[in-house]
Specification:
This protein is α/β, with parallel strands linked by helices. The protein has one domain: Aldolase class I (TIM Barrel, Alpha-Beta Barrel). 50% of the residues lie in helices and 13% in strands. The protein has 12 helices and 8 strands. It has an 8-stranded parallel beta barrel, surrounded by 4 helices. Helix 1 packs parallel to helix 9. The chain is globular.
Length: 289
């Protein structure tokens, strides 16, 4: 379960329905062109929290059918509705997903005991492994080292998607748990995550820039951190221009420019501004995406 995982983009049509053929193209691009080790399905990048339960199940179906056993598959099933999270966890487990992941419950000020019970319930009901999805900037939930102790005491909690810029905490977590999987969740900080000893990375921009990110990981594994930083600079030049244009809209438009039907975003997210398409075409050309 180590390596580079794409947080999978999901193509939608103008009515907000999943474009099956486009989704299959996006999956194949990640496997055949970006050469990733796995796919993280129905996360933030997949606009998960804008989808119905049936849409989420449909996406799990199509991705598994297209990817088969070629790469590892992680199903993000987290929901503020625990019953939905369990239902999705059972469904993905039945399809053969290698592990579940779940964002910490958000919006309400849940106590840690409530958060722990949420994870324990999903694990008990599905029997599958769990990767904690820690993204405090969006959920408002920070997990302390002692709370990680409690979560990791369950052998089924095999790791964490660590989307935070607290590298002191990351170093401490790595030191404390050498046998748990830790995935870097910030694409723009991949080299720092590798320096801290992460086992892999899960990110949005790997849909279009996976090969460059793979190179960062390879160089770090060879202890060639100087060159790894140079490649990170290039990756961040790409990321900076993507962020200026709107991350999900631009990632999809990059794929559309390349002939992959990545569709559009789902409302209430805005659509890509077609007057800026020339900027995306230039981006693709400048960085050979």
């Amino acid at each position: 379960m180590k390596g580079l995982f794409t947080a999978l983009l999901i193509p939608f049509d103008e009515e907000g329905d999943v474009k099956e053929a486009g989704l299959r193209q996006v999956v194949r691009n990640n496997i055949d062109v970006q050469k990733v080790d796995g796919l993280y399905v129905n996360g933030s990048t997949g606009e998960n929290f804008l989808l119905s339960t049936d849409q989420k199940k449909f996406i799990f179906d199509i991705v598994k059918d297209e990817a088969g056993d070629e790469v590892k598959l992680i199903a993000q099933v987290g929901s503020i509705n625990l019953e939905e999270a369990v239902e999705l966890g059972k469904y993905a487990t039945g399809l053969g997903y290698d592990s579940l992941s779940a964002v910490t419950p958000f919006y309400y000020p849940f106590s840690f005991e409530e958060i722990r019970d949420y994870y324990e319930t999903i694990i008990a009901e599905t029997g599958n492994n769990m990767i904690i999805y820690a993204i405090p900037a969006l959920t408002g939930v920070s997990i302390s080292m002692e709370q990680f102790d409690a979560l990791f005491s369950n052998d089924k909690v095999i790791g964490v998607k660590y989307t935070d810029n607290d590298f002191f905490a990351l170093e401490r977590l790595r030191r404390r748990y050498p046998d748990k999987l830790i995935y870097s969740g910030f694409d723009e900080m991949l080299v720092y995550g590798m320096l801290s000893g992460v086992d892999g990375a899960i990110g949005s921009t790997y849909n279009v820039n996976g090969r460059r990110s793979r190179r960062i990981m390879e160089l770090c594994e060879q202890n060639n951190f100087i060159e790894a930083f140079e490649v990170q600079h290039e990756a961040n030049d790409v990321i900076e221009r993507i962020l200026e244009l709107g991350i999900y809209q631009t990632l999809k438009e990059i794929l559309n420019v390349k002939g992959i039907d990545a569709g559009t975003t789902k409302k209430p997210l805005s659509k890509f501004d077609p007057s800026k398409r020339h900027k995306v075409e230039q981006l693709v050309k400048d960085f050979e995406l």
